[in-house]
Specification:
The complex is a heterodimer of chains A (173) and B (256).
Chain A: H1 2-28, E1 40-47, E2 58-61, E3 64-75, E4 80-88, E5 99-104, E6 111-116, E7 129-130, E8 132-134, H2 139-148
Parallel strand pairs in A: 1-7, 2-6, 5-8
Antiparallel strand pairs in A: 1-4, 2-3, 3-4, 5-6
Chain B: H1 2-35, H2 39-50, H3 54-78, H4 85-123, H5 126-132, H6 137-175, H7 180-190, H8 193-220, H9 226-255
Helix pairs in contact in B: 1-6, 2-6, 3-4, 3-6, 4-6, 4-7, 4-8, 4-9, 6-8, 8-9
Classes of the chains: A alpha/beta (173), B mainly alpha (256).
Chain lengths: 173, 256
Amino acid sequence: MTQRRHFQIGTGLFILLGFAALGYLATQTTSLANFDQGPSYALKARFTNVGQLKLRAPVKVAGVRIGTVSGIQFEPDRLDALVTLSIDKRYQQLPDDSAAAIFTSGLLGDQYVGLQPGGSPDYFKDGDEVVLVQNAIQLEELIGKYLVGGNGPEKGAAGKNDSPEAVPPASGK
Amino acid sequence: MSAASRRLGYVADALAQVGDGGLFFLAILRALPASLRYLGETVRQIWFVGAMSLTIIVTCGLFVGMVLGLQLYHTLSIFGGTGALGTVVALSLYRELGPVVTALLFAGRAGTSITAEIGLMRATDQLAAMEMMAVDPMAYVVSPRFLAGIVAMPLLACVFNALGIAGAHVVGVTWLGLDNGTFWSNMTANVELWDDVLNGVWKSAAFGAVVTLIATFQGYTTPPTSEGVAYATTRTVVASSILTLALDFILTAFLM
């Protein structure tokens, strides 16, 4: 009888250990780990090109993650992409003239939305739109431009958009 | 002439083996409801094939993770992408190496002992004695081992994966100086629960079924001699390794 209890307890422990390992893998090493349920508020930004931006991509200020991309939709009437950003409620002091840009982290990295703080004394509120945007940098487009050669006054690929800076920053953050 | 007919005989034998295996699988399925009466036996088998295999799984998982960390760090540094180490290690473990290496180790650790045990039961007429006592050996001996394999393999593969990640973390972050945050954030950004983690879980359940099916079949149909049991044990390892890898290719093509 004691022998019987011994292996039954052992089997129970083994099954628990297996499920603990599965739970660890599922919650700590997959995209579920980035799924923060904390209170957040929404900002909108319109891009003419979102590149490879995906849902749940991070939103960063000064390289620190403050939220996630919660929606990417095509807007048929304006023919651009409406990106919804869920910003953590803890970070409410974002000046309302901040600029949003789509960067790539590293050479093989994913794309993320970087917010560059402005100098306005007023802050963004829930549902506000980020007016100053800079599109994803399309590497192919840039290379194409350089191959074709100097196009005169048009400076770089991102220049024809309504972006605050015509020349893309060197490497992101 | 006789050589040709003998070769034809070998082919026919091999085909008959496959056919017998298929029929044996159906017999297991038929015996599954009856085997629910022997739930304690299934629990004992999970202990035997699962929990007793933990030592080898833990050790091998750790070392496979460490060597993956070393090798992939080297390869990724060629492309300047060492930040993706966590992602690449996790994806190769979850999708491929975890289920497959666990299945190979499982065939060596648990499959052989199942074959030898059932084979000796056959050789010493214990199976015949059970039939005499109106205990169906398919329900009492074979099905619990089959069920235990299906339950234990995914759990073992998960433990293997977790230890593999830990090993890669030790090598990549502690030893080679990769940034801890980069390792984890890159991994969590690219690994998906359904597509990657559970994909490997389904696979390993299928491998557990294949390995225990072959092990019980070889044991059940072994010639009742010591030499027969020895050959059956060898065939278990060979056949389940080949079938695991072949099935892995097919399942991957379907689950991609």
